Structure formats: structure tokens, C-alpha cells
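Box 3.1. Reading complex inputs
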Amino acid sequence: MSRRNMSLLAGGIAIAIAVALLSPLASGDPDGLERVAEDKAFIEQAEDPGYEILQDYTIPGVDNEAVSTVLAGIVGVLVLGGLTFGAGWLLRRRRAGREGATGSPTDPQRPGARV
Amino acid sequence: MLAIQPVPVLEAVEGPALHIPDGFMSGPVAAVGWVITVAVLAVAVRMADRTLSDRAVPLMGVMAAFIFAAQMMNFPVAGGTSGHMLGGALAAILLGPWAAIIVMTAVVGLQAVLFQDGGIAVMGLNILNMGILTALVGWGVYRAVLTFEGMGSAVRLVGAFAAAWISVEVAALATTFQLALSDTSPLDVALPAMVGVHALIGVGEGLITAAALAFVVATRPDLVNQPVVAEG
């Protein structure tokens, strides 16, 4: 990966983590759909998922609510950043592999080229 | 003697977000949501596979991470109600609609699987409403407004605001129609309420989207001055 792309990735993830650090300041009021569901009396139709991993953006066992929310946010940021970057990288590599096989001399992207 | 009826309610309604939970939608509506979402996602992967540039790859990771974090930041709107960003329009403006759909699918999917935000059976609908529709509508509106770019650089920010606001309303409209089709809430009851509250939430979405675009223009203009998708 080029240095410029590396700094884009690092800078962007840092911004996302900074936003996650602010997440305890988020409004706890019901959001748009939840408000309408309460006002129009269909909120009770909501079913529990039946399992919990990081339910409601908290880490189980971390009692401090703000810390728990921030940690859950950072987990989400890192998992999603990695997952999506990985997916894009795979798509890119697959194409580079195909173009390498068919011999596309004008394409600077070859298998193993910097992404 | 009173018989106490157990009522299945959401335990912690103070969670930072509420996507469509299981139980709101009928089986057929949820199933159609899955079919449409899987079909569009297949097209999106194909198109992104053909058009993705090198720069788009780290930007995809950054957008997914940022949109996830931004969705946690519920902001207050009028009357004890909050809203949160959806992000599909911003992702589409920066990445094009196809990579944006992949990013949004990852965000909404992980929210359901890992954070129990949004049901599993209705995940197709949540991805369709908050990811696919917002990306396609946001992209379309932004491109349409950009035809007036000759009038000055502010047009871009106006376009981003309009794209984001309209994308939120379209997502709310789609949800409302699905609720009506599911016999959960009739159209004449839910429609004015959903459109009204999301008109306010859309202003927040529009401001965040325009601010984020302005930030990218200021720091990495190369990401927006050339199309991120490769030619052809």
C-alpha cells in the first residue's frame, strides 16, 4: 500500500475512533423509528434477539456505562475498518490477478502490486 | 386475582440506536427484503469489482469505520426524540454507489450480528432501507445537483446536503410502506409521523454529510476532484 493510502487509512480510522470516544455524549432519547413506534403503539411488537454479544453497544462485564460504550464503539470501528478494507483489497487483487493472466500491458496494477 | 401478562418489550430502550427489530415486519415482507438486498448486493460486488480504484480500498475501510461510529452519535431533535446519521449518501458521494452499498451492508450487518441493533430476520430490510436506498438516492441527487457546478464550489455542499436529506426521507418512506404491508401500522397513521420526524433527522444528516465532504475537500481534494471509480 502506498504511503498516501496508508495515511488515509490511519487518519480515517483515528477520526472514527475519536467519534467513538464521544459516543457517551449521544442523546439517549428514542430515535425516529422508536419514537413513532411508541407513539403509534407498535413498539411492543419488537422481539428480543434471543442472544447477546455486545447488546446495545456495551461490553459485558464493564460496569462503567461510558467506558463500556466507548470500548464497544472502538471494537466496531476496528472490526468494520478491517473487514471492509479486506473486502476491497480482495476485490482489487482478484481483478489484478485476472488482468495479469490476460496480459493487460497498460494496467499498472499487477498481481502483488502496491495497493 | 390479577393474571399478569408477560409483555415482550425491548429491555433497554436507551440504546443509542434502533434499527427495525424483529417482530415489526411480517415474514413475507422480511423475505422480499432479503431477496432484493442479496440481488442488489451481487450487482454491487460485480460493479465494484470492475470499477474500484486503488484509492477506493482504504477509503472503503475508513468510511465503514466512520459511519459506524457516527451512527452511534444520536443527536437530539425536537420533542424528546433523537436521530442518528445513516451515512449512505456520504459513502456514495465519496465512493460511488456500488462500493457504498458494500460499505453500508457491512455496517448494518455487523450492527445486527454483533450489537443486536436491528433484527436478524429483518436485516435484509435494514440493509435495503438504510444502505442501498440511501446510497442510490444520495448518489442520484448529488450527481443531479452537480450539473450546476459551474455556479461555484458551494454547489457541491448544497448537493451533499440535499442528497443526504432526501436519502433519509426515502429510507423512512420505505420503512413506513413496509410497516403498512406488514399490518403493523397503517399508512395514514405512520406516514405523517415518520416523514415529519425524519425531516428533522434529515437536517442533521445533511449537515454532517456536507461537513464531512468539506473536510475531505480541504484535506484530500484528490479523493473528490477525480472520480474514485476508475474509467470504464
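In summary: Chain B touches chain A through 79 residues (CB under 8 Å).
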